[in-house]
Amino acid sequence: MDKLNTDTKYRASIYLRLSKEDGDKSESDSIGNQRDLIHHFLKDKPDIEVVSERIDDGYSGVNFDRPAVKKMIEDAENGVINCIVVKDLSRFGRNFVEVGKYIDQVFPALSIRVISINENFDSINGRSQSDNILLPFLSLINDAYLRDISIKVRSQLEIKRKKGDFIGSFAVYGYFKHPENRHKLVIDDYAADIVRDIFKWKIEGQSQQRIADKLNELDILSPMEYKKFCGMEYQTSFQTNAKAKWSAVAIGRILKNEFYVGTLVQGKRTTPNHKVKKTVTKPSDEWIRIENNHEPIITNEEFAIVNELLNSDTRVAPHKTEVYTFSGLLYCADCGNQLVRSSVCRNGKTYFYYMCGKNRITKKCTSHRISDTAITDGILVALRQHIANIVEMERILKYIDTLPYKSTNVKKLNVQIISKEDEVKRYEHLKTALFENLSDSILDKNEYLRLKYVYDEKQQSAELAITNLKQEIDKLIKNRTEETLWIEKFKLYQNIDTIDRKIAVNLINKITVYDDKRLEISFKYQYNFDLALSFIQSMEKEISPRNKVKEAV
């Protein structure tokens, strides 16, 4: 590099940078310390006049996408400055390639004098042989240091995610960061009620757009505005209006967010490396999911119902604000397509009916046409009967719980456990004796190993039997309340006269319509229903000599 003119009066810009992301030590690398060091250095250099001070506080040196450094380079290109002073080259940048390009090509071409105090480098003196070796080496070290810091930070974040620590900048709408532990979240009662309303309205048949409109009509602050209202410095480039409003997209995000059932999902996005800031979405099987991580706002059942609805075709009819009662629940028995609602006008009266969607569009299936009234009446009758069966089932289950067979069986199983525990102890003694025989040379090593293997196998079998027996006891003595919570959900609707959207989506999975107008209804919790029925039938056999269950029935 050619020497710069030593008679030039230099208009210098001092450049200061600090970044916790780069692992800078706050004391030695603080902006104040950098400034003091540079001014002290320039004290006896009257040929250098400081005309500007450029500061990038909080910006990583991994690239040159920093406002102050860009402004400084612009000044250099425009001739506003002809000298740059930094504490060390790592302040200017930690990217080996980029720093080398500016030091070796750009600044010499612009006749810019560069002074790096800690490296004792001043471009006016040209490069000594040692500089030619040392400066690229230092840049390389700075680059490697940043890579090392990046790996450590990523590793620490990964550990936090796996521990269930929330590492987002802002809490999810409906929660606050815990005042004493910012990695834990607590429910924000006000916003949580809004979230519950959103799920409730969706279950009742309202579209995402209608829910958004309703919240805007009620002047409920959108998540973005609520953050600002709470004093958070939240900014986004997506905001186009002065005041952000609720939208169907925002409602959809809330309805699909597992966070509201207590599941923390993090690590969805990443960057290819520490030099590339563009984020990419990771495959879902690489996300970190921690269930039951925090207090839920929505039950798993509500979340499942809503997301089933979101996956169904439940578009709102024109000029309506809510979907029809059975939208997304009716299916053709032959082709499996959803039934669609239509109307016909006869003698001045409008009649509504459902028909196969495939038939309506392509005629490649039969019509499966059935009136809205027939559907509603048929389902109402079936639902009432199903609820009556469940109520009767509950009565029998309660009766079974009062029978003495349970304590008798528990005692029987306890005796078996004691027997198996004795068996385990016996094999322990046998293995001890075996070892003593080996020590006394009564057995050789092969005989010892063969017999020990046999005893180990028998001991493990006995231990497994103990585990299974204890599980049997748990099943017998477990409070049945948890197992029968689903019954309460049906009992809420024991005396219904009509079916609305909420009842339909809460109690019915699917309604299959046959061409001869038969209906096949799949109710919610069918697995639990079958399990309870199977239990009752098995108990009937168990106690049949005494006909206890039959007496109860």
Automatic annotation (TrEMBL):
- Classification via PROSITE patterns: RECOMBINASE_DNA_BIND (PS51737), RECOMBINASES_3 (PS51736)
Q: Name one Pfam family in it.
A: Zn_ribbon_recom
Q: Domain named Resolvase/invertase-type recombinase catalytic: which ranges?
A: 11-164
Q: Which residues form the Recombinase domain?
A: 172-316
Q: Which InterPro entries match?
A: DNA_bind_recomb_sf (IPR038109), DNA_bind_recombinase_dom (IPR011109), Resolv_N (IPR006119), Resolvase-like_N_sf (IPR036162), SSR_resolvase (IPR050639), Zn_ribbon_recom_dom (IPR025827)
Q: Write the protein's name.
A: Recombinase
**Organism the protein comes from:** Anaerotignum propionicum DSM 1682
